[in-house]
Write a sequence for this structure.
């Protein structure tokens, strides 16, 4: 039998349950998304009670096994990811109404065998009869259990990730990316800077950090083992390790410690700075 799944659509006008099932394999105990703070994850560092009056909040939580994926696909707003303290994953997404109280943005949460997906998009009516409105910003907070993969794709939004204990793939087009306490990351933006601080001396996977118009700032533990490759077209590369420091105008390759996974840093218009944690 095909695994059942849950899809929830939320707009300022209504919360509509499209389909509810028992959840896919490996996704247990998921609760239906709610439109108010009453169902919010109690220990969220970004509580839904801070939402503006008239805002709609979609909340989902459920057990996610290591190896599953939490995916967020949005257009505008913010995406903030923090480590869960147990194996319960959670998503809180908030969209605020316009000045006239309307909304043209829907939020949908779907569970399947791979994990859970949050997607925001324009309402069908607005897409068909574009009234000159733009999609509204959506603020998303995700709590990611250890070993669960996080994937974020957005267009005009800032991404902030802190202390994740699993693979993180973070992509935006117009916005900054801040990631702290990670063991590896794939991070990319076009217009924006990227700041990454790694928590362990050995990268868990090959890591790529890339932007076009912006700086790349990386902080490594006091001892780090990696094969560093950095490149920029219009900017300076500076590596404050070893202590004497190394500078280059375009490309730089260094073996940090005894080497290991690759750490690739790229920008076109911007500087690259690699330093040790103080």
């Amino acid at each position: 039998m095909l695994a059942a799944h849950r899809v929830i659509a939320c707009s300022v006008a209504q919360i509509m349950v499209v389909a509810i099932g028992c959840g896919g394999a490996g996704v247990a105990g998921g609760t239906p998304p709610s439109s108010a703070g009453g169902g919010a994850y109690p220990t969220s560092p970004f509580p839904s009670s801070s939402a503006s009056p008239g805002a709609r909040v979609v909340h989902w939580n459920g057990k996610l096994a290591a190896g599953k994926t939490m995916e967020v696909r949005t257009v505008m707003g913010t995406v903030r990811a923090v480590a869960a303290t147990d194996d319960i994953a959670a998503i809180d997404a908030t969209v605020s109404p316009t000045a006239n109280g309307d909304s043209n943005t829907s939020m949908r949460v779907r569970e399947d065998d791979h994990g859970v997906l949050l997607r925001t998009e324009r309402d069908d009516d607005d897409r068909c009869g574009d009234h000159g409105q733009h999609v509204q910003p959506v603020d998303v907070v995700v709590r990611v259990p250890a070993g669960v993969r996080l994937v974020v794709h957005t267009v005009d939004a800032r991404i902030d990730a802190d202390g994740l204990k699993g693979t993180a793939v973070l992509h935006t087009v117009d916005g900054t990316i801040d990631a702290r306490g990670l063991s590896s990351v794939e991070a990319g933006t076009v217009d924006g800077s990227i700041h990454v601080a790694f928590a362990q001396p050995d990268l868990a996977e090959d890591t790529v950090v890339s932007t076009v118009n912006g700086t790349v700032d990386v902080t490594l533990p006091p001892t780090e083992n990696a094969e560093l490759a950095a490149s920029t077209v219009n900017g300076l590369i500076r590596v404050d390790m070893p202590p004497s420091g190394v500078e280059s105008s375009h490309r730089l390759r260094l073996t940090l410690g005894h080497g290991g996974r690759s750490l690739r840093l790229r920008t076109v218009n911007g500087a690259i700075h690699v330093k040790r944690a103080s």
Observations:
- Residues 1-39+54-144 form one domain.
